[in-house]
TrEMBL record:
The keyword Lipid metabolism does not apply. This is Regulatory protein, luxR family. GO terms for biological process: regulation of DNA-templated transcription. SUPFAM superfamilies: C-terminal effector domain of the bipartite response regulators. It comes from Litoreibacter janthinus.
Length: 183
């Protein structure tokens, strides 16, 4: 993540320098140019460019997060998945994105060393993240996490069937005897 910040800062500095150069070279007369004015213009352009870059980055990140959540939320035509269960509960449990990713890998059956290799981190980091996952979720082991997710997936699969059974049962009841449908 620090590499992104360094590249972003370099880009902001370069853009501010280019804007300053353009104004000094093509807008100002030579007698108007002094060190204080050039420094002030650079500072102004740096601040404005940094603000625009920060706003754009946060908006893009929010958009991509929304897209990812919509993609993973089960819809009418989407299959129920382990990732969906983890991501639904990650917010309630207060998991970071890294912790949610580790939880997803765990429920898919990967070992700590395999997770560390895929994520490009140390096994100790994965173990630490697993400890935080267990603490935040109230679960005590990877087996409880896997069992919880499996139970949730089974419950999600049964929900549409239960709705269909309830609808067909209500449709067969006489009009006066129909029970209100629970939502």
């Amino acid at each position: 993540m620090s590499r992104i910040w360094v590249l972003g800062l370099a880009a902001v500095l370069a853009i501010a320098a280019i804007k300053t150069f353009v104004v000094v070279r093509f807008v100002l007369r030579p007698e108007q140019i002094d060190q204080a004015l050039v420094s002030g213009l650079f500072a102004l352009f740096f601040g404005l460019t940094a603000a625009v870059a920060y706003f754009s980055f946060t908006q893009l990140r929010a958009y991509l997060d929304r897209q990812r959540k919509e993609k993973l939320a089960p819809g009418v035509s989407e299959p129920v998945a382990k990732e969906t269960v983890i991501l639904r509960n990650a917010r309630d449990w207060g998991l970071s994105q890294a912790e949610a990713d580790v939880a997803i890998f765990v429920v898919k059956g990967f070992s700590n060393s395999e997770i560390a290799e895929m994520r490009g981190c140390a096994v100790a980091t994965v173990k630490s993240q697993l400890g935080k996952i267990y603490q935040k979720s109230g679960l005590e082991s990877r087996y409880q996490l896997i069992a919880f997710v499996t139970d949730e997936v089974c419950a999600m699969v049964k929900e549409p069937e239960d709705d269909n059974v309830q609808r067909s049962t209500q449709a067969s009841l006489p009009l006066a005897g129909r029970m209100p449908r629970a939502s």
